[in-house]
Amino acid sequence: MISAQNQIKGRITNIQAGEAMSLVTLEGDGCTVVSAVTNHGVKALGLTPGDSVTAVIKSTEAMLIKDGGQNLKLSARNVFDGRVESIDKGEAMGFVRVISGSVHLGAAVTRQALDEMRLAVGTSVTLAIKATEVMLIKE
Fold it and tell me: Quick check: pTM over 0.85?
């Protein structure tokens, strides 16, 4: 069991090795996810194409974009266009659940950002996650 709510199960389709880090691509739940993993981590887990893995992303590592996120040029490798499914508002922080295809993802954001973005259930948003923030669990 793990506390991170954003979990996408899939299979590794590609491993692009660099000097110190590798980009591990997986396909699952109708989407593509890229994770930046140290080469030591790839070796320690014995990752190879075809392996079953779960991508895990803390909700605090997700960024929400409203009004034109599709046209922004981002360095984030993981970009999900979707709609707000639910919003929980607290005094300082909020939690926004987004549905993108069949994937449900959550983003923890400040209350100030929630108020400024004027998010509501059904609002179109883009959720972005840097590859360095995606952890992998090998099945």
Answer: yes
